[in-house]
Amino acid sequence: MARSQEEIEELSICKDAQIMIEKAEKDGVVTVWDRFKAQQPQCTFCKQGLSCRNCSMGPCRILPGKERSLGVCGANADTIVARNFGRGVAAGAAAHSDHGRDLLETLDAVANSDTQSYEIRDVEKLIRIANELGIKTEGKETLQIAKELADLLLEEFGIKKGNIGFTMRAPEVRRKLWDSLNINPRGIDREVVEMMHRTHMGVDQDPVSLLLHAARVSLSDGWGGSMIATELSDILFGTPKPVESKVNLGVLKKDEVNILVHGHSPIVSEAVLTAVRDKNNIEMAKAAGANGINLAGLCCTGNELLMRQGIPMAGNHLMTELAIATGAVELVIVDYQCIMPGLIPAMNCYHTKMITTSPKAKFPGAEHIEFNVRNARTQAQKLVEMAIELYKKRDKNRVLIPVEPVPMMSGFSNEAILQALGGSLAPLLDAIKSGKIRGVAGLVGCNNPRRKHDYCHVTLTKELIKNDILVLGTGCSAVAMGKAGLYMPEAASLAGPGLSSVCKALNIPPALHVGSCVDNSRILHLCGLVAKELGVDISDLPVAGSAPEWYSEKAISIGLYFVASGVYTVLGVTPNITGSKLVTDLALDGLTNVVGACFAVDTDPHKMAELMINHINKKRKKLNLPV
Ligand code: CUV
Ligand code: SF4
């Protein structure tokens, strides 16, 4: 049965989404919301983390306090919940870090002159990062430095004596705390593997011990795999600087060949961009009757292109099927992560084709055209030609581009923020000290059909900036803010008087787009810089984090590395841990005594804002700053 207008408005706050949900229904496209409904009621054991299928004596479903309070092996609820949580963190950390490894292999190929598809675009940053990690660069050729950096970072993944190099970006007190807790991450792969080992039947049964290791795994992501992904992407594709672009489904063009890139790594999408900009290809598109070739992004690979190249953003996680339902998309080129298999039946309703490019992520029903460091240019060329051919098959009568795009600013890397501040952190610190900016909040993570699409991201951001808290956004959260117009300097009018005056002076928005999910490492780095400058721990800073509409295992890892780094983090979706009081109490409270920060959970963005503001005020008081 078709949804009423009211029902549709309950699903998303976005006009483009609302219009397209209706069109999708008419066109017979099954969406994430339809499948979510079909899954109800969802398993309450799994929801609480109380089901285990780690071995073949099970699966076991635990009812604490009842006869079935233990699994076949004897594991109790605390163990099972902690194990499940730990595996989620490991999967998330693995996803980010394996993405980082791909960038590393690309850098390695460039260093060995083994590719014509990629180059080093930011030599200054290459040298800066190499020096930071202890590589002597004087008098050396660029490619030699790249080679040494790649070799050094490759070691961070595997066997290494000591700790992950970028953890030195955290203040010394924090590193000492990690050491004393034995959670300072060693090799990136090692921590993930150890979590798989510990959660095998009959290994680590102690929930506290499991959670501490989960923290170590997450730290190897935030200060390791993700940070490597960010820094190497900057070196290879350019460090982001402020750039204007556009966002929402209105970025699709009626009269042009539309290509969407979806996934996470910039490796494929950057190669596609180069081919899209090629003059011969544009001529070819014109010969096919189109006005040009339009490239737009979805999700995090979209964020990567938006941050560095100003490529427009079509939408976030829950918009991916709806983008196809416009009927205006020729090709969706994907790499990995957050790509719903539901896109395949959706595209089959139109002339649209989905192309998978990574040997790690194949989708039955999609065409697989594999990219590697050597063939990326030629493969990208092939895809652009394919898109132009498909344009000829587009049924113009079924095209609906629902709205006009919204302008947004992007590109706020830490380097760009420093530059906007005139080269040093001092003006930011002064603004924080005086209370013009009361604190900084990182808003990150996905959409989830459990929550009204984008509602929490946008409402929470508005509350925070109104209270003079500068918001840094990444991932799908960032896309939501952009669509709501919060990424334009004019949005300063929605901010409190202090933040608004700072924004006007610097001509920046009150919420800043700092990148994709791996770019949460930029926020960690910034926290480290500020804490060192003030001579305090990260947990002393007036900062807070939130993942208001998260769904992904990667978001669990992100949330945990923020907490383990000392940043209080408010979740808008309850993690699957409520089956264990011990684990839940630890997450929501006890961790504060261990790492100086904990999680909070609330589904109401106004209450989430209150929690974050109270926390920031508490930290201000402790630092003797005006509240
Ligand atoms: Ni990595 S992880 S839905 S695209 S933020 Fe978006 Fe961002 Fe979550 Fe995925
Ligand atoms: Fe059941 Fe224990 Fe096996 Fe898990 S590890 S499935 S609780 S027997």
TrEMBL record:
[Ni-4Fe-4S] cluster binds at residues 264, 300, 338, 446, 476, 517. It is an enzyme of class 1 (oxidoreductase). GO terms for molecular function: 4 iron, 4 sulfur cluster binding; anaerobic carbon-monoxide dehydrogenase activity; hydroxylamine reductase activity; nickel cation binding; peroxidase activity. CDD domains: CODH. Signal peptide: none annotated. [4Fe-4S] cluster 2 binds at residues 52, 55, 60, 73. GO terms for biological process: generation of precursor metabolites and energy; response to hydrogen peroxide. Its cofactor is [4Fe-4S] cluster. [4Fe-4S] cluster 1 binds at residue 43. Its EC number is 1.2.7.4. It catalyses: CO + 2 oxidized [2Fe-2S]-[ferredoxin] + H2O = 2 reduced [2Fe-2S]-[ferredoxin] + CO2 + 2 H(+). It holds the Pfam family Prismane. PANTHER family: CARBON MONOXIDE DEHYDROGENASE (PTHR30109:SF4), HYDROXYLAMINE REDUCTASE (PTHR30109). NCBIfam families: CO_DH_cata (TIGR01702). This is Carbon monoxide dehydrogenase.
